[in-house]
Amino acid sequence: MVQEAPRIVHVSSVHRRDDIRIFLKECVAFRDAGYDVHLVVADGKGDETVLGISVHDVGRSRGRMDRMVSTGRRAVAKARELRPAVVHFHDPELLPHCVTLRARGIRTIYDAHEDLPRSIMSKQWIHATIRRLISRGSELVENFCAGRMSAVVGATPTITARFARVNPVTETVCNYPALANAPSPPIRKPEPRTFCYVGALTLHRGIMEMLRAAEAADARLILAGPFESEALKAEVSAMPEWRRVEYLGVVPHAQVWEIMSRSVAGLLMLHPVRNYIESLPIKMYEYMAAGLPIVASDYVGWPDVVRSEKIGLNVDPLDAAAIAGAMQTIMSDPAAAEEMGSRGRDVVMVRYRWENEAGKLLGLYERLLR
Fold it and tell me: Which of 354, 365, 327 is closest to 181 using CA atoms?
């Protein structure tokens, strides 16, 4: 008698159905390992099957509060309806609903993509007078619920260490790039004086400093990703420095490699806010996989990678002149830049790749399903 494959359900009321970590990395890894994989989302695009993974849509929410209450309830109800062996969910707002699932004997995994309380402290849309209170309250609720899960997955060692204090079954699964589909060897057709940044465009991610640095360095800048608000987009696009920019909007992940192939180097100017200081930004590792030298922020763990591996330059992300100087250094010595990019490629292919992390996640599931 053929044994039926364990059914696992990933759930998100926030992320896109093609989210890189959730769908292209985790869901695909479980599919390849022989699991019956389902994904519950809330985007209003309907049900479908993609790459052998069943996607279930519970409909769009009507604002943030509706998403946190009604949409989350519908998403978790759909997960329960699918009669899973494991429910793996990706949003902190789903935690209270998933405590109910756990109480019913269903195995539940909380995948903490970020350090929520520290992230809240950098949210400018939350009034400063109540930001700390909300941060503390979220930490208490998150810890209480996470302690009742079957397991917790942290996207960085720092996140895992925090949750290990409330749940002994924790695992670090870093968000390193999936390199199975990366060009090998990397395609390099850099256009003169051209740099790139791919990711969310926000003040704390250095959009203003990157524009001013491009102007000062007489460089071009390819940008791809969503703006945090229409107001910021309007402000930035009205700046004189915007003439230096080729803005591509939100692009498919496959196009990211093409953008990087056109660039002399990749920029990563995250500001020294708490949520970024201990992060592992996937874009840094994707730049490395593409053979790009990196101009990155100079704080905490990042210089240990960039300097020790000699794959780029670290600068103060708040100093546009310093960023421009690093860009000019890269442009002035193409041979040295090529060596930096080549070293980064060699390192990421061995040490910082998703394929290593997928094995840890699959091992966690095997332990839970025994």
Answer: 354
Instruction: State how far the Cα of 136 lies from the Cα of 158, in Å rounded to an integer.
Output: 17
How is residue 252 written in tokens?
């498919």
Which of the given ranges, 122-131, 135-144, 359-368, has the highest pLDDT on average? 359-368
Q: How are beta strands 36-41 and 7-11 bridged, if at all?
A: parallel
Cα–Cα distance between 293 and 312 in angstroms, integer? Answer: 5
Beta bridge partners of 245: 221
Domains and CATH numbers, the chain: 7-176+353-368 (3.40.50.2000), 194-350 (3.40.50.2000)
| β-bridge partners, 223 | 197, 247
Angle between helix 230-237 and 207-216 (nearest 10): 10
- CA end-to-end span of the chain: 19
Tens of pLDDT, residues 153-188: 999 888 999 999 999 999 999 989 888 767 777 788
Closest to 178 in 3D by CA, of 53, 356, 364, 30? 356
Each residue of 300-314: pLDDT tens digit?
Answer: 555 467 887 899 999
* Residue reference for tokens 């465009």: 201
Q: For the segment 311-338, what is each residue's pLDDT rounded down to a tens digit? A: 999 999 999 999 999 999 999 999 999 9
Quick one: pLDDT at residue 2? 43
